Q: What sequence folds into this?
């Protein structure tokens, strides 16, 4: 099938498969991703992405203000229309405009019908005690709310900048997606309300979030270094359970407890989502796809279901977000990039 033929497909896939692990509450056989037909793959690639660049005023740690002029990179459908907005947040030391983001993550979101952007922010804070709930909240607040927004016509927050784009319609919804510190930050974004825009412009609605590689307790070499239960449990986050889908690798040694195993990962994600399944469970979602998923090593081409399971470990260390099974449109598993994009899109308006 040619690229031109793919671009002519008009079908929209609106939701995730309800497939689950046998221990999940909505157990059903998981489709074999390798068995996807061209028609199934094409149905996921509805829009043609085109890149854009922008800026916003991020949080400055030293000044503790939303005044750090920085950049974003985006992708949106070339087709006419107005679309919901997706914000992607990279993790600690992640490069917001790296090739994995620009070539895979943002186009996948745009192909599902999003005006999508990846944000730069002060994410060099070392993993450990220096990372805390206040850090995540401060970074999230400047992405969503800047008190100077719409004063003298200014748009300083990321959301105000994105919602002003001609193809964006934030009344259809704003979703967030992120990895590690970026996932923590994306969850905290729901604690903030955007500044009321000018008359005639709808107030943006935050509708869903899909964090990867997160947890309430963090470990290095089996020693607990971070405790963010204050803002990373089902009782402390501001996201409704039906608006949250969390994914992590089965062997993440940061957040899956001191042993970095499936049991610790299940406990961590149950704590974040509030969804409980019989152990062992790798897929604990409801029929709409809300809940959590643990990725097995056998599901990845490199066989490493670690904290950075979506990275291409066989490529250059600077190339992230390139694991072939994660970025493949043919992968129908719920942890895949395109499946996540479809789950996010299902929470937006027409």
A:
């Amino acid at each position: 099938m040619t690229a031109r033929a793919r671009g002519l497909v008009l079908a929209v896939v609106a939701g995730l498969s309800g497939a689950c692990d046998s221990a999940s509450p909505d157990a059903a056989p998981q489709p074999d991703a390798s068995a996807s037909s061209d028609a199934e793959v094409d149905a996921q690639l509805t829009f043609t992405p085109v890149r854009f660049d922008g800026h916003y005023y991020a949080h400055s740690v030293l000044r503790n203000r939303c005044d750090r002029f920085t950049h974003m990179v985006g992708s949106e459908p070339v087709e006419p229309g107005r679309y919901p907005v997706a914000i992607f947040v990279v993790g600690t030391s992640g490069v917001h405009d790296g090739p994995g983001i620009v070539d895979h993550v943002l186009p996948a979101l745009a192909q599902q019908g999003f005006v999508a952007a990846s944000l730069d922010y002060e994410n060099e804070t070392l993993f450990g005690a220096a990372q805390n709930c206040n850090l995540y909240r401060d970074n999230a607040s400047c992405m969503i709310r800047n008190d100077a927004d719409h004063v003298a016509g200014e748009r300083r927050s990321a959301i105000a900048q994105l919602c002003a784009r001609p193809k964006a319609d934030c009344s259809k919804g704003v979703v967030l997606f992120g990895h590690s510190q970026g996932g923590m930050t994306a969850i905290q974004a729901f604690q903030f309300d955007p500044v009321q825009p000018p008359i005639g412009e709808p107030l943006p609605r935050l509708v869903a979030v899909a964090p990867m590689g997160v947890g309430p307790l963090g470990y290095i070499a089996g020693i607990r270094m971070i405790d963010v239960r204050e803002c990373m449990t089902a009782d402390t986050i501001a996201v409704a359970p039906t608006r949250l889908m969390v994914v992590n690798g089965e062997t993440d040694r940061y957040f899956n407890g001191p042993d970095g195993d499936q049991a610790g990962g299940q406990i961590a994600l149950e704590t974040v989502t509030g969804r409980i399944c019989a152990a062992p469970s790798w897929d604990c979602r409801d029929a709409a796809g809300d809940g959590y998923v643990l990725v097995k090593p056998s599901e990845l081409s490199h066989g490493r279901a670690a904290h950075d399971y979506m990275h291409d470990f066989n490529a250059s260390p600077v190339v992230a977000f390139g694991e072939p099974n994660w970025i493949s449109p043919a992968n129908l598993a719920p942890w895949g990039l395109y499946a996540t994009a479809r789950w996010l899109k299902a929470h937006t308006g027409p």
Remarks:
- Residues 1-44 have pLDDT under 50 and may be disordered.
- The longest strand covers residues 65-77.
